[in-house]
Fold this sequence. Notes:
It is found in: Cytoplasm; Membrane. By secondary structure, the protein is an alpha/beta fold.
Amino acid sequence: xxxxxxxxxxxxxxxxxxxxxxxxxxxxxxxxxxxxxxxxxxxxxxxxxxxxxxxxxxxxxxxxxxxxxxxxxxxxxxxxxxxxxxxxxxxxxxxxxxxxxxxxxxxxxxxxxxxxxxxxxxxxxxxxxxxxxxxxxxxxxxxxxxxxxxxxxxxxxxxxxxxxxxxxxxxxxxxxxxxxxxxxxxxxxxxxxxxxxxxxxxxxxxxxxxxxxxxxxxxxxxxxxxxxxxxxxxxxxxxxxxxxxxxxxxxxxxxxxxxxxxxxx
Length: 265
């Protein structure tokens, strides 16, 4: 049963030494409702709920001072408690995942930075999470950080609207995110990849609190991409290039694929 604060604490070993003034929390959003896969966070993969696999990966991080699951469902809450995790209940009425993250962050008032780790990526690389955390803590000019994988411009995924692409400036900051091919190669440019956006975000706390007060922006609504709201409001978003291509789980079929991967490790 959850306490009055809505959060259940388990010991979390703090191994972050980025700064005495920084406190970095990883938050794993986990909703019950899903059109394609209801109850996904509790789907068993290799004998453990999906959300526990993600939790276990995140526990290997060295740059997180705290780790929390944010959920809107008592069943998920109870399951996290059962495997010894830390969890907070959030409203079921949030319009976006970022709003859920912002509410969960209130449970950790000392947090200066928040890393939003998708609760359906059981093979996420802990090193990528650490890299995002370190990038945010090292650069006071950043509002956000995220990641992307290079794609060959001829890869069929470039034309897939379900695959979000990002274009970056020479200094590694995001210029635009789109479901369309990005950039459009009118001329071939040797060595220029297409960058597939990976849905992990790190935020400066003060920026996250501002972000959720802004209404959905025009480009955000057109592309159905929350990160465009940040760009349209002048945010600075660092994009880390990574070779982490770990698959997410959006369907039962993808869960079976991940189970096969885990069985082969």
